[in-house]
Amino acid sequence: MSQLDEKRMRDEIAEALEEVIDPELGIDIVNLGLVYGVDVDENGDVMVTMTLTAMGCPLAGTIEHEVRAALAPIEGVNSVEVNIVWSPPWSKDNMSRFAKIALGIS
């Protein structure tokens, strides 16, 4: 994969992740600060490392499914794995300014 193709794919992945909305908060997972990292290997296998707002979140499976569904149609993506981690723990400090304003958090 050329550097240009890899950059395009990374840009598309970032945009697609911004379309995945946390069903409880109504804000995308990127602006909530839930996505800790995205790794793409030379085969187009994508690993999204992320967390959730609370351990034991009943919507974990839904969010994981939405991440996979959002990334699957991107040209060059071969497979998508979602690695949910609890360290470091999520806090409202992870949220973007946009998310804080939308949720009324200062």
Helix content: 25-40%
Count the domains: 1
What CATH calls the topology is GMP Synthetase, Chain A, domain 3
Head-to-tail CA distance between termini: 43 Å
What is the C-alpha radius of gyration, as a whole number of Å? 14 Å
CATH class: Alpha Beta
Overall geometry comes to globular
Q: Judging by the overall fold, what is the CATH architecture?
A: 2-Layer Sandwich
User: What is the N-to-C succession of helices and strands?
Assistant: HEEHEH
**Sheet with most strands: strand arrangement:** 1-2-3
Strand content: 15-25%
Domain MIP18 family-like: 10-82
Pfam family, one: FeS_assembly_P
Protein name: MIP18 family protein YitW
InterPro entries: Fe-S_Maturation_MIP18 (IPR052339), FSCA_dom_sf (IPR034904), MIP18-like (IPR002744)
Protein described:
The protein has 3 helices and 3 strands. The chain has a 3-stranded mixed β-sheet with strand order 1-2-3, with helices on one face. The radius of gyration is 14 Å and the shape is globular. 21% of the residues are buried. The protein has 106 residues and is an alpha+beta fold. The chain has helices at 3-17, 60-71, 97-103, and strands spanning 35-40, 45-50, 79-84. It has a single domain, classed as Fe-S cluster assembly (FSCA) (GMP Synthetase, Chain A, domain 3). Helices cover 32% and strands 17% of the residues. The termini are far apart. The mean pLDDT is 94. The longest helix has 15 residues, at 3-17.
Quick recap:
By secondary structure, this protein is α+β, with helices and mostly antiparallel strands. Helix 2 links the parallel strand 2 and strand 3. The mean pLDDT is about 95.
